[in-house]
Structures are given as C-alpha cells and as structure tokens.
Design brief:
52% helix, 18% strand, binds ligand C2E, binds calcium ion, Diguanylate cyclase (GGDEF)-like protein/PAS domain S-box-containing protein
Amino acid sequence: AKAAGRNGAALFETTMLAAAENTLMLERDLGNALDNDEFALHLQLQVSPDGQPIGAESLLRWRRADGVLVPPDVFIPIAEKTGLIVPLGTWVLRQACLSWLRLSRAGHALPLSVNVSPRQFQQADFVDVVRSILAETGVPATQLIFELTEGLLVENMDATVARMHVLAELGIRFSIDDFGTGYSSLAYLQKMPLYELKIDKGFMRDMPHDVNGTALVKSILAMAGQLGLRVVAEGIETREQAQFLASHGKPCMQGFLFCRPMPLGELISQLEAAA
Ligand code: C2E
Ligand code: CA
Ligand code: CA
Ligand code: CA
C-alpha cells in the first residue's frame, strides 16, 4: 500500500507539472491567437417550445496554428486571468454583429446572444465599446442579448446593476447564464433589467430521472414565470428531455437535439432547408 501511495504521489506531481506547463504554453499561444486570426465564432440555434427558431447563441472557437481545437472552458478562464478577454470580448461582439448582418441579409434576422465575461463587463469603457460597435455596424441594440454569469452579480452588484440599466436604455437585453449554479438572490434579480434566465445544462443531464434536478428545474420555471422572464433550458439532447419540459412550464430550448454550434454559413443553409 505504501509503494502504491508513493507512486500515486509521484504520478500526481507529474500530472500537476504537466498541467502547469500546459497552462503556460496555452497562455503564450493565446496571447498571439488574436493577431494570428485563430478564433472563429460559431452559432447555436435556440428554439421556442414548439421548435421554431427564436435566436442563436454565439460561441467562441479557438483552433491553434497546430490544428488543435482548444475548448472554451479551457481558454476562457486563462483569457480572463491574463486580460486577453477584453480585446477578445470586443472581437466577439463585433463578429456577432457582423454575423447578425449576414443573417439579416439572408432573411433570418434572429436576435443573437453573446457571452460577456465579468472582466469584460467591468471595463470602464465597456458601454462606449458597445455603443461604437453598434454605430459602426448599424445593428439594432434590440437584436443583442448579453449573457452574464451569476459570478459578476455576486462580486459587484450595485455597479453591475447600474451598468445593466445604461445598456438596457440602449435596447440591449440581458440573460443570466448557467442559472441555478450560483447564489443570486431573488431580491437582486428584481432590481435588474432582465429578459431571460438560462437553466444550466448540468440540471438537464439526468432529467427527468433525477428527482432533485427535476424539482430544481420546476422551481426555476415557476420563479421565472412570477418575474415575467423568458427561460431557455440548455443542453437538451434527447426527446425525453424536451417532452418533459413541454409538460412542465414549456421553456425555450437549446441543445444538440435541435442544432449543434456551427459556422454562420452552415446555420444559414440549415435555416434555408427548414424554411
Ligand atoms: P455556455 O455559455 O454555458 O455555453 C453553452 C455550452 O454548452 C457550449 O459549450 C455549447 O457548445 C454546449 N452545448 C450546447 N448544447 C449542448 C448539448 O445539447 N449538450 C451538451 N453537453 N453541451 C451543449 P462551449 O461552446 O464549449 O462553451 C463553453 C463555455 O465557454 C460557455 O458556456 C461559455 O461560458 C464560454 N464561452 C464560449 N464562448 C464565449 C465567448 O464568446 N465569450 C465568453 N466570455 N465566454 C464564452
Ligand atoms: Ca452562454
Ligand atoms: Ca450556460
Ligand atoms: Ca457554462
């Protein structure tokens, strides 16, 4: 047992070292990725309870020069730490607006949801950046939904709420992403100009078999109903999940069952085929 323990420890150290080296390499590569044009924006359709397209979420993709696709769950936290998320977030917003223009010209003017990270939202000039991208592209603010996470709301509630109101005045709508995984209180939710809650896909995974998850989903739907908010349930992969939701509050849905995240051109083809 002792030997096994020692081997275990050694293995752990090696893994930690590899992970640390890996992070440093990723940090370095990420620093050049924007200049090297290695990012792309994919779009994933969102559908109404009866399956009609209601919008799409923009999801960032990083394909490194060596061809490796690095998942956003890996590089976004690093970009957030190094600060690259600020120029990257600006790039995403402009790219989302350009995507909206192409969709609109193809006859599919769907509102686009854009993930906005806490550090990006908290930049002193964030509102100016949003304003100037809207002016530059001519996209109506009402066609954008900003997805914020509960982390941002916990950290800096008053400043966040004030800034949300300024952007809402412009016409931007707001969604709380991964809802149910953080600690936002009902009192605060009522102070914010909110349009939507997105139920985290973690709660969908074992639905409708997982009793706790199911209860939580039902209570989020009830609460959103009370607050007059739209709900999008994420991570819908099976007919069973969609059917369960259809008989429990009928939220909007997003997931592989309906559409994978894909490049804009493919999404337009898919929308044409369905029309
Ligand atoms: P998120 O905002 O919660 O995005 C939803 C994630 O669920 C996406 O992962 C999407 O591809 C995935 N997904 C969609 N449908 C299904 C499904 O049916 N089953 C499963 N298992 N997964 C599904 P992705 O694209 O890997 O993004 C991961 C996270 O990275 C996002 O989570 C978001 O937090 C962050 N992210 C992505 N793009 C951006 C961005 O432009 N800016 C910022 N700040 N964060 C981003
Ligand atoms: Ca999101
Ligand atoms: Ca989410
Ligand atoms: Ca997430």
